[in-house]
Predict the structure of glucan endo-1,3-beta-D-glucosidase.
Amino acid sequence: MLLKLSITALIGLLSSAVSFTNADCTYSGGNYYCAQTDAIIYSNVGLSATYQDVTKMDESSCVCTQAEFTASGSLAPFNEELSIHFRGPIELLQFGVYYPNGESKALKKRSEKQLVESCNEQGETVVSRHKHQHKRDVAVEYVQVTSTVYVDGSGQTVTAGSTNTIVGPAVPSSYNKVSTVLSSGAQAVETSASPSLAVSSKASSSSSSAAAASSSSSSSNTKGDWSRGSYFVPGSTTNCTFMNNQGGAAGSGVWSSCFGNSISFAASDGISGAASAQALGEVTVKSGNEFMIFSGEKCSGNNDDCGYYREGIPAYHGFGGDDKIFVFEFSMPSDASGSAYNQDMPAIWLLNAKIPRTLQYGDASCSCWKTGCGEMDLFEILTAGSDKLISHIHNGQDGGTQDYFDRPTDGTLKAAVIFNSSDKTIHIIEVDESFDEALSDDVVDQWLSKSGSSAALP
């Protein structure tokens, strides 16, 4: 049965939420931060959406051509191939990808003999890194299907319709956003307000029960053991390729006056380019440098199984599929001594793999990023020296949570990111377990249950 609330009841709920947030959330460096968490759930992921896909990059005219592409299916567009991106200061100690039911390939439905057991690393310095300087104007905990409410200082509200989105629309800085866990039939209410405070939905009394329902659904719908199809530890890789944006500088990739450096193989230092795939070494990649991981499976040809990609690049598949688990172990030590762009602002994020295969940084018409083909920030520092890692989604309906993971400056953080198509959720979870060749259902269910029962620590 759908939950129905009157405007009066909604205002009462908002009042309690506002009071909770005033005590719990702080504003620092242009961003709101609420409570430390060990798990974040994105619910109701998966929309049929059209974005602009690159179909040609013309070096003679410096013009990119795009065409409409429709992404659909469970967790779309995050069921498409993804590349994994890292920005220093960071030391990556482990990375792995798991698939259910013994599907241990880099991509589902790929031929076994196409897989290549080599992994590459990248570290890069880029002039314009606009995608990871997000300024959050809201504080939202997305745990289940939410209703979105905008409230002014006097408590006035205006009904705007129902919501049933991944994380809700982007919110102008003139609004304060409250996200409460109600039901898929709840109404959203909106009015303008001064940006004096942000409110976390953790105050909703229905949060725990909704999260528990999510946990039950997730656990009951996970079938079979999970097999590790890709794995990295320093100096050794299986079915992954490290890259960066040093194309044309060291024997791989290309450079042009139109589009600059393409992606390239990364050397073991995580910074230089390389002529062939290399495993990342036991190194700390400094501020201002980035590297990325693709699978070990080469694209079979331009405009073929990978779609269009820039001529002359080392083109590899990303990690696709409705159900998959990424695992990480990493450290993000302080690095305040330099003056690099994004100094002491480490991050780990996912991109639709089409983006770096065309142009990650540069003319917006030369990638599908601006039109919503998918970015998910898993762990991101928003201001230099911060110890709070935020998560955020971009795929045409930006949103996220202002609860945060604690940045591992001295030790390491182990985490799993679970894409669960059965209930359209993505879970980001701190974990303690080892990343063996296989994960049991019991372990995965435990992770899902943990994230479902509590999205944030008290």
Observations:
- The chain has one domain: 34-145+206-453.
- The two ends are 30 Å apart (CA to CA).
- The chain has a mean pLDDT of 73.
- Residues 303 and 309 are 7 Å apart (CA to CA).
